[in-house]
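Here is the promised in-class demo. Please do not try to memorize the tokens; focus on the logic of going from shape to residues.
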């Protein structure tokens, strides 16, 4: 069950392809909530991928209007932007949250105690590639004059 990826919780195995997809379900859920809050429907706001070449993000947002850009023009403020962790220049007009896109076992820096934990429990320290989901500040619930739950 571990080798097939069926074991819950998901364990680290040698023969699984890496990097494996992180918690993209959370990324999709947050994007859907922002879209529902502002349009009444999920998947209706456009998403801009800033400087990212990620087939997994394109597949995740396959029902959305997705635009790939290498840089944002100064006069353009898209509703939602997904960028790598090093694109922090959006902080003035947007609110962002880092979410894991890919996960990979840290085999190279494993200590003897890590290897023992892996042998017994199939647990190993995980390296995560995070992305930031940026949402324009005026689309957030507290900026619309509605009471927060």
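The designed amino acids, position by position:
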């Amino acid at each position: 069950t571990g080798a097939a990826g069926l074991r819950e919780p998901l364990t680290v195995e040698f023969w699984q392809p890496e990097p494996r997809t992180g918690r993209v379900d959370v990324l999709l859920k947050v994007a859907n909530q922002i879209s529902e809050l502002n349009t009444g429907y999920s998947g209706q706001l456009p998403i801009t991928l800033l400087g990212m070449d990620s087939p997994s993000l394109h597949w995740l947002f396959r029902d959305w209007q997705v635009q790939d850009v290498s840089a944002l023009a100064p006069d353009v403020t898209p509703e939602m932007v997904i960028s790598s962790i090093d694109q922090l220049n959006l902080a003035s007009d947007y609110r962002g949250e880092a979410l894991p896109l890919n996960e990979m076992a840290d085999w190279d820096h494993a200590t003897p105690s890590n290897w023992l934990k892996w042998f017994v429990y199939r647990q190993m320290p995980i390296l995560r590639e995070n992305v930031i989901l940026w949402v324009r500040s005026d689309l957030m619930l507290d900026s619309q004059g509605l009471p927060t739950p």
